[in-house]
Amino acid sequence: MGPRIGPAGEGPQVPDKETKAMMGTENTPGGKASPDPQDVRPSVFHNIKLFVLCHSLLQLAQLMISGYLKSSISTVEKRFGLSSQTSGLLVSFNEVGNTALIVFVSYFGSRVHRPRMIGYGAILVALAGLLMTLPHFISEPYRYDNTSPEDMPQDFKASLCLPTTSAPARTHSNGNCSSYTETRHLSVVGIMFVAQTLLGVGGVPIQPFGISYIDDFAHNSNSPLYLGILFAVTMMGPGLAFGLGSLMLRLYVDINQMPEGGISLTIKDPRWVGAWWLGFLIAAGSVALAAIPYFFFPKEMPKEKHELQFRRKVLAVTDSPARKGKDSPSKQSPGESTKKQDGLVQIAPNLTVIQFIKVFPRVLLQTLRHPIFLLVVLSQVCLSSMAAGMATFLPKFLERQFSITASYANLLIGCLSFPSVIVGIVVGGVLVKRLHLGPVGCGALCLLGMLLCLFFSLPLFFIGCPSHQIAGITHQTSAQPGPELFPSCMEVCSCPSDGFNPVCDPSTRVEYITPCHAGCSSRVVQDALDKSQVFYTNCSCVAEGNPVMAGSCDSTCSHLVVPFLLLVSLGSALACLTHTPSFMLILRGVKKEDKTLAVGIQFMFLRILAWMPSPVIHGSAIDTTCVHWALSCGRRAVCRYYNNDLLRNRFIGLQFFFKTGSVICFALVLAILRQQDKEARTKESRSSPAVEQQLLVSGPGKKPEDSRV
Questions:
Q1: How far is the C-alpha of 303 from the C-alpha of 384, rounded, in Å?
Q2: Residue finishing a domain among 523, 551, 579
Q3: How many Cβ atoms from other residues are within 10 Å of residue 617's Cβ?
Q4: Is 637 helix (H, G, I), strand (E, B) or coil?
Q5: How many angstroms separate the Cα of 593 from the Cα of each of 325, 336, 457, 474, 492?
Q6: Are residues 591 and 451 part of one domain?
Q7: Is residue 709 assigned to a domain?
Q8: Are 422 and 233 in contact (CB under 8 A)?
Q9: Do 242 and 263 share a domain, yes or no?
Q10: Less CB within 10 Å around the terminal CB: N or C of the chain?
Q11: What is the pLDDT of residues 45-59, one digit of tens each?
């Protein structure tokens, strides 16, 4: 949500002719409505309740398409050979377009036809979602074993230990590394970056214009309820995105162009790539359908006249979060808004775009001079950095740390983590409402929630799985295993340097990156009732020549993923307790006329300092734990193996660092609030006796003089 430029608390403007057509016949002479066909509008679209419903569905679909990439980030990395740093940068580009235009959207405010602008933005979001799928259709089919890109049935045979005379046949995959191949790879990645940027640009007008439209034309008492419903429905969007990702990643990536004879992969194979692009098609279609009604809503509609009867019951939960961007209009007299002429919010309608840009930095610095506002925003920057990194890379972390599938990781996150976030926000709002918390109480609640969150984060450092023992990699610091790490058993083999077809020795739980690296020269398929199991035999590098199983070694502690995620969800709920009270601190820490602008500045800082850099920071930290990189045309591509202990310590440690920063900021906020409260009580105690004494001396017929200290 960005700042809305326009008089805060001001009522709707003079109705246009669209509105007059729905206000009755008193606006036309003779009591008859104007026969002008342009004035004829469907009455159903002049209902603010329908707008709330449509906007809830649109924001739900928008957050679903924005969050879907996070649910399939590891799949996109494997499909296009991206590092975690690059994929984090890709996620951040969603915020680049959004941040670049949010100030201008705030400037235009209610000057434009807001519903239509929302519709245009939603159409752009849908087109950006379709553009995200384009790399799938212009790329060649996925080759899960690049040692045999031309003949899929020979996948397993190409990974076997063959005589060194066959070495030239092994290197044909590098022969495909032409300038055309590299250009095509850069084009595919560039298309995704452009799509992510457009996704952010299209989302710019949706939330600010929708919230201001509801605020302008809903009844003063109903507006908090409508905004609470809007936020509650919107928060389900990321959860649905991860649920959609769980379903789509169970399907093979090339489901639309399966090779003859099918594929020999299972969903548990580390080379499996799911149909990541299919989710973007579904989400883009949902956004496009949700955008249609906005082209029929009027620029302005009659102010809602009736208060909902059941609103008081619902407001107990939704009132506090819904008021984060405004004061309650019902508590303002008509004359109050006319007196607020000293803020940028009031003078902006009279400024040109150039003048607005010139005056904005000065007002920004003036707003940042409030210590409470600055510290609360810094604490929210820390929390948002933690949330952005967790939302982007938690699925990949669970996959690598506990050896589970991407589909299962998304299912767990969608069912546990995001519902806990919603519960935390709602409980925080209820506590603020029920306990009637003032600034000191809000600061204490924020600090308590973050301290508990920090406490429950400590066990996460110790819940995880050890790294698999990978032959030739586990005890090597370089990225690529060399033949010298394997004894004379490999001398007769010509193993491909870029091959990846992992096998496992069940007796020693040692994993080899290909059957060739295990010295295996033959392959056996054993058919079972439900599936067939592939074994490789005559393995010269395996103890006693035991056969090895196709696929990575199973993890012995995959069951720990559920308690790990339960602790993560509990910490998320405790951190989200601070959502509503921190907004209350921001709204009460600045001047009344600057509240709307302060909320806009807050969201701008969250995007610039948290949502944009955090995925890149987390991705870079994850890359430092990689022990074996896949090579594509001589460059580092996707990481095949990580050091699990380093991955856990650095990922959780980065989260712990941001949580500690938030605790420090909230502690300073509470200290300042207590000091201010103490000073206020001291002044009050000094002034009260003076007033009482003056009343006694002056007598009942005299008015007390000014007794300000």
A1: 36
A2: 551
A3: 17
A4: strand
A5: 12, 10, 40, 61, 80
A6: yes
A7: no
A8: no
A9: yes
A10: C
A11: 888 889 999 999 999
